[in-house]
């Protein structure tokens, strides 16, 4: 039986929530030197649990996740359960306490888990042959702004949407850039008319396309995948969106295992993912064309940015 953790928080991201229900509340987790709740034992025949965060609306992801579960169950020769978690920090806590075996995380939240418990990046994805993506700040095509400098001249009148506070391309990288320019510190301290966290990249894109907000920060690969899907349905998204700013290249989202995972299991996972050619699976991971091996060193630039923006939880 499928075990889905349905995220009501993602569905009502625009309505806001109280502090106790904040999907981006920082989770206090063990450091690499602290003991976890129970001894870690790698169960080769038990359920293999995978956690993912919806980077798009969940209905668009379910078929691909079903297929991924089936593929890995066959390749690993054990029951595989793919669970959708409500937010990044819930996954960080789960991987830190060894409650899951594999997680698909944004670079920032992977680095938080790596700093706290030694979690390791082992797989990422290529899109059109490249393992890199970008952070974009986008606006509607009808806007008179041609670049970020134009927008910033009118910043006092600009409503700006980020994805999640824990998103690398949807907040950390563009937020740090705006901070370095002196225009943004936090949701409550900035020089814009309004800042909001929409919850996911597709929601940010919709807000910009519908001109509910003036600009938004999104993942370039997810935006391209949304545009391709929209074109298949005779939509106008590609014509409706204008890119005002592009970051330096970022290494794609990693698949992450707990620190104690054996080399044998890591190799098995890397091989199983390398074999994936199912478009339903590849499409939901930023329009990937294939999965490739990754390691911790490839995320050093994001680690530096997270430290500068004080977005790592270190004991």
UniProtKB/TrEMBL annotation:
This is Phosphate-import protein PhnD. Residues 32-43 have a biased composition (Acidic residues). The keyword Amino-acid biosynthesis does not apply. Keywords: Signal. Belongs to the phosphate/phosphite/phosphonate binding protein family. GO terms for biological process: transmembrane transport. The keyword Cell membrane does not apply. It comes from the Bacteria. One of its GO terms (cellular component) is ATP-binding cassette (ABC) transporter complex. Pfam families: Phosphonate-bd. Residues 22-43 are annotated as: Disordered. Residues 1-20 form the signal peptide.
């Amino acid at each position: 039986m499928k075990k889905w953790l349905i995220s009501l928080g993602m569905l009502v991201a625009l309505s806001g929530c109280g502090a106790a229900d904040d999907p981006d509340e920082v989770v206090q987790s063990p450091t690499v030197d602290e003991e976890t709740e129970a001894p870690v034992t790698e169960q080769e025949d038990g359920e293999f649990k995978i956690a993912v965060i919806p980077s798009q609306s969940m209905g668009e992801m379910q078929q691909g996740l079903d297929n991924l579960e089936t593929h890995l169950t066959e390749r690993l020769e054990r029951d595989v359960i793919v669970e959708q978690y409500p937010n990044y920090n819930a996954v960080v806590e789960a991987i830190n306490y060894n409650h899951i075996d594999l997680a698909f995380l944004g670079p920032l939240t992977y680095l938080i888990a790596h700093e706290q418990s030694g979690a390791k990046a082992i797989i990422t994805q290529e899109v059109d042959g490249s393992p890199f993506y970008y952070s974009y700040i986008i606006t509607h095509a009808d806007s008179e702004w041609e670049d970020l400098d134009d927008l910033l001249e009118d910043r006092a009148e600009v409503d700006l949407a980020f994805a999640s506070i824990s998103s690398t391309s949807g907040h950390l990288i563009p937020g740090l850039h705006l901070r370095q320019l002196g225009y943004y510190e936090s949701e409550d301290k900035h020089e814009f008319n309004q800042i909001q966290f929409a919850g996911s990249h597709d929601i940010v894109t919709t807000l910009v396309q519908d001109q509910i907000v003036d600009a938004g920060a999104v993942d370039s690969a997810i935006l391209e995948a949304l545009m391709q899907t929209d074109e298949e349905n005779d939509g106008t998204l590609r014509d409706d969106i204008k890119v005002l700013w592009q970051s330096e290249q970022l290494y794609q989202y990693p698949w992450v295992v707990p620190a104690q995972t054996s080399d044998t299991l890591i190799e098995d996972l890397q091989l199983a993912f390398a074999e994936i050619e199912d478009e339903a699976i590849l499409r939901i991971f930023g329009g990937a064309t294939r999965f490739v091996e990754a390691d911790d060193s490839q995320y050093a630039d994001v680690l530096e940015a997270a430290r500068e923006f004080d977005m790592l939880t270190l004991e």
